[in-house]
From TrEMBL:
Functional pathway: Glycolipid biosynthesis; lipid IV(A) biosynthesis; lipid IV(A) from (3R)-3-hydroxytetradecanoyl-[acyl-carrier-protein] and UDP-N-acetyl-alpha-D-glucosamine: step 6/6
Keyword set includes Lyase: no
Keyword RNA-binding part of the UniProt annotation: no
InterPro entries in UniProt: Trm112-like (IPR005651)
Catalysis: reaction(s): a lipid A disaccharide + ATP = a lipid IVA + ADP + H(+)
HAMAP family: UPF0434 (MF_01187)
Residue ranges of the TM segments: none
Organism name: Nitrosomonas aestuarii
Keywords associated with the record: ATP-binding, Kinase, Lipid A biosynthesis, Lipid biosynthesis, Lipid metabolism, Nucleotide-binding, Transferase
Official protein name in the record: UPF0434 protein SAMN05216302_1001146
Length: 60
């Protein structure tokens, strides 16, 4: 994932910062508990395509 792109990308819902999870190839929004997949190097920043992170799962 390009670090310059990570610096400018924000959550499409809350406009907050995203956490890059390299091992899962996802961008995580902690406040909204959403994981946005990265496919072929392109982040899929659509709410309908995002994976919901259950409340019982700790985000670090």
């Amino acid at each position: 994932m390009d670090t310059k792109l990570l610096d400018i990308l924000v959550c499409p819902l809350c406009k907050g910062p995203l956490l890059y999870k390299k091992q899962d190839n996802e961008l995580i929004c902690k406040p909204d508990r959403l994981a946005f997949a990265i496919k072929d190097g392109i982040p899929i920043m659509l709410e309908d395509e995002a994976r919901r992170i259950p409340d019982e799962v700790e985000i670090s």
